[in-house]
Each structure stands twice: as C-alpha cells, then as structure tokens.
Amino acid sequence: MLSETSIELRTAKPSLMMRAIKWLMARRKPVFPHTASEFEAYMAQRDLPQDAPMPEKFESKYVVERWEAAGQPVVTLHPKSGPGVWHMLYFHGGGFVLPMFDVHWPLIAAMVERLGVSVTVPLYDVVPESSHAVQDALADEVYAKFAASHDPSRIILNGDSAGGHMALSLALRLARAGGAMPGKLALFAPWLDLTMQDEGIRGVEPHDTMLKIGTLRSCGKMFAGDRDPGSAECSPLYASAEDLALLPPTRIWTGRHDLFIVDSRTFTGKLRDAGVDAKLYEYEGAPHVFMAVTPTKESKDTLKLLGEFLAA
User: Fold this and answer.
1) Where is each Alpha/beta hydrolase fold-3 domain found (predicted)?
2) What is the three-class DSSP state of 32?
3) Overall number of domains in the chain
4) Beta strands 72-78 and 63-69: pairing type?
5) Distance separating alpha carbons of residues 285 and 255, to the nearest angstrom
C-alpha cells in the first residue's frame, strides 16, 4: 500500500539547469517520432543503428574489460583502484530498438566514480533487427557469469527506461526459476507497461518532450513480437504478487514530467503490498531519464540516494 514513506518528492521545482535542458530538448529533433505512424515509417527505412562508442579517455580513467556473452558485446568498467565491492549490471534505454546513446556513457562513468562500483554494460542487439529473445539471452548469460564468480547479494541490477524494464524482467525471470537473486534492484524511469493503459498518463503527456503514448504503444508491439504486450511477460507492471514478493529491495527514480511516472507509482504500491522494501523518488518538472544529465542537481541527488541504498 502506498504511504508517505513509499514516495518521496525530492525536488519541489526543477533546477535552473534542468529547466534549460528541457527548453533545449523541446526544440531539438525528438529521439522518438511523436506519432505511431512516423515511428513505424522511420523504423521501416532506417539503417542498422550503431552503439555510441565509449569515450577514449575511459581507457586511462578506469579498468576496462571488453568481452562477449550470447554473441553480443559487453563492456565492464572498474574503478582504477580495482573491482568495486558492488557490481552493477546496467541496461541502457532506447525503447529496445535504439542502441547505446552517447549520454549513457557519462552516467555510467559517474556511477563508477561516485559510488565506487564496477559496472557491466551489455551492448545488446536491438529490435526489430534482432528479437527480445536475443536480448534476454544476453542478460541471462551475463548475470549467470557474475553470479558464479561474485556474491549475488553484492550484485545490483539497474537500467533506464526500456533498460529498467530489462533489469526488472531479468530479476523476475530469476525469481520464477528459483535462481540466485541479486542483492538490490534500482530502476531509472522504468518502462513498466508496454500498452500504456492507465488513463492518468494522458495528463502527463503534454509535459513530456520525449515520449508519446501512441509511439510507445507501437514500439511496445514491435518489441513484444508474437507475445501479448499486455501480458506480465512483456509488461512487468502486471507481474503476480507472488513473483513480486521474491524481488530484492527496490528503488525507483522518475521525473514528474515523464510519462512513466504514473506506472512507477502504481508499481511501487504493488511492490509494497507484496512485502518488498520499495521506494519511489520523484522530481518535479524533470523529464524522462533526467539522471543522464549528470551536471544537474537532480542527477547528483539520484546518485547520492543510490549510494545510500548500496550502503544500507
């Protein structure tokens, strides 16, 4: 059940830098086309996308490992001092259909530097050129590798947007299979319902400069393939209470000008009802995946809270 301890408003108004970022975002070409028909036309004619390359300076700032799992590339960053006590498996967002963005690398670097964690980033093949099954196989293999060589209680699953969905879905697959569970789960603006059914989302849509309901529904169908997008398999918001009860302590961060805020609140309530140690942190006026804008007050607060979550 939601209570005053389930949701915490961290900022009552957006910082000056966040307002400037939102102003710029509203004037740039959107990451996703704003209508389903435009999105489908774009996907039908696009060139095969490529991951944004890791900045060269990372080679000297961190210990970098490049490897493969399920035939797909993986990058692990360790602090220069060596592997962290915690190991984070981080899934980048992009609607399952877009590769690693250049803004993801500074966010990952900030977590390595400020939290002292090792971070592994699967550079998964995207839909529709690939499939959800290929993405899941990569996630499963990477986690199995670390669970075999690390204390699972010191592994944290994390991700933003569709990547948050991937982290949560991995945790749910592990729970259903009775596998070794990660110690904690962190979700940055997770996509929880591919069908975007809650009517309350429409009230947020005019404020979201990046995401639109129709586009997301079309994207969700593309990712689901021959599955029902509204099933628990595709939309973790509808996972059973029995499965949710097996999840580790969970923290969620979402901006109030993000379409996913509505489902984040609902999901936090479901986690609490299932007996999970769960909390949602909200940021007034903040857009989708605001924490990727690392110089902002809001992003710094997110990482501060994440550090406290790991230390608890």
Assistant:
1) 88-291
2) coil
3) 1
4) antiparallel
5) 6
Alpha-carbon span 34 to 57, nearest angstrom = 35
Encoded tokens for 241:
């209470």
Q: If we measure between CA atoms, which residue out of 67, 66, 62 comes closest to residue 82?
A: 62
1 occurs within a structural domain = no
Residues 123, 130 contacting (CB under 8 angstroms): no
Three-state DSSP at 234 gives coil
Contacts of 177 (CB under 8 A, 6+ apart): none
Q: Kindly report the pTM of this predicted structure.
A: 0.96
**Rounded to an integer, what distance in angstroms lies between the CA atom of residue 24 and that of residue 295?**
15
Q: For residues 115 and 109, what is the distance between their CA atoms, to the nearest angstrom?
A: 10
pLDDT tens-digit profile of 65-115?
Answer: 999 999 999 999 999 999 999 999 999 999 999 999 999 999 999 999 999
> Which stretches within the chain are classed as H helix?
16-27, 36-45, 58-61, 104-115, 132-149, 162-177, 201-204, 213-224, 241-244, 261-273, 297-311
CATH of the domain at 206: 3.40.50.1820
Residue 143 tokens, joined? 């986690």
Q: Mean per-residue pLDDT for 12-31?
A: 92
In a domain, 194, yes or no: yes
Q: Is residue 288 one of the residues assigned to a domain?
A: yes
Does 2 map to a domain?
no
- How would residue 1 be classed by pLDDT, with cut points 50, 70 and 90? very low
Q: Using only the alpha carbons of the chain, give its radius of gyration.
A: 18
What share of the chain in percent tops pLDDT 90? 94
Domain range enclosing 297: 7-311
